[in-house]
Amino acid sequence: MDVWDAVAVFAAGVAAGGINTIVGSGSLITFPTLLALGYVPVVANVSNNIGLVPGGVTGAYGYRNELKGQRERLLRLGSASLAGAVIGGLLLLGLPAGAFKVIVPALIVVALVLVVLQPRLQSWMLRRREGEHRPHGGPWLWAGVLLAGMYGGYFGAAQGIVLIALLGIALDDDLQRLNAAKNVLSAIVNGSAAVLFITMSIVADTRIDWGAVLLIAAGSTVGGLLGARAGRRIPPLVLRCVIVAVGLVAIVNLLR
């Protein structure tokens, strides 16, 4: 990797960290960048996942005010993210490298539909519950977060879109608070998958490019802080539009 390649990877990390904090799908910047520089897809995917972990942490920290009062909710849903990430990471290491090209676009389409319909679906669910207070969303949300964690551990692009859609439908809360919870759950997924990949690199010789990891980590750390500062000022309707726009771009990129 020469100097310009390193600059490109760092810049992609900054952009990915910011987008992940606001919406999700930052991997659709860093992952193609690594592929364009000649990295093998699985190596690029694993290195990218590990590198984006610090950005997830700084993004969650930037939303710390919106996280107040969500501790019990995040402990419950975080267990689903942790379990899902491990399963998804094992699938990545065990399944053919091209399998996600079939699965990922369909998941993003479903997530975007859920984001668009989220206000109506949320009102419908609240009417059906009729005063039943479920601050954690019940077992269906836990199962959905588990599946999102599996997806995030496997590839991760648009994981944030899937999570924000699930949280927005199942929970009666402000969208910015749900976005803060999404950032924590995404960080748990990426961090858990990263631990798995590092462990497998030791015991099973899974390849990791640590140069790319360090550059993406540095960039995503900066991007996570910048993204939190910008994202917390975005009104709910605008944030929902940004989510849909990023998701559509993700689909186009994956179908090329």
User: Percent helix among the residues?
Assistant: over 70%
Number of helices: 11
DSSP summary, beta strand count: 0
What does the main sheet amount to?
Answer: none
- Portion in strands: under 5%
Mind telling me the C-alpha Rg?
A: 17 Å
Helix and strand run: HHHHHHHHHHH
Low-confidence stretches: none
Mean pLDDT level: 83
Distance between the termini: 26 Å
Question: Care to give the gist of this entry?
Answer:
By secondary structure, the protein is mostly helical.
Strand and helix map with partners:
Layout: H1 3-22, H2 27-36, H3 41-51, H4 53-62, H5 71-94, H6 100-129, H7 138-154, H8 159-170, H9 175-203, H10 210-231, H11 236-255
Helix pairs in contact: 1-2, 1-4, 1-10, 2-3, 3-10, 4-9, 4-10, 5-7, 5-9, 6-8, 6-11, 7-8, 7-9, 8-9
Annotation keywords:
single chain, 256 residues, mainly alpha, 11 helices, globular
Can you tell me about this structure?
By secondary structure, the chain is an all-alpha fold. It has one domain (3-255). 80% of the residues lie in helices and 0% in strands. The chain has eleven helices and no strands. It has helices spanning 3-22, 27-36, 41-51, 53-62, 71-94, 100-129, 138-154, 159-170, 175-203, 210-231, 236-255. α4 (53-62) packs parallel to α10, α6 runs antiparallel to α11 and α8 crosses α9 (175-203). It is globular. The two termini are 26 Å apart. The model has no long low-confidence stretch (mean pLDDT 83).
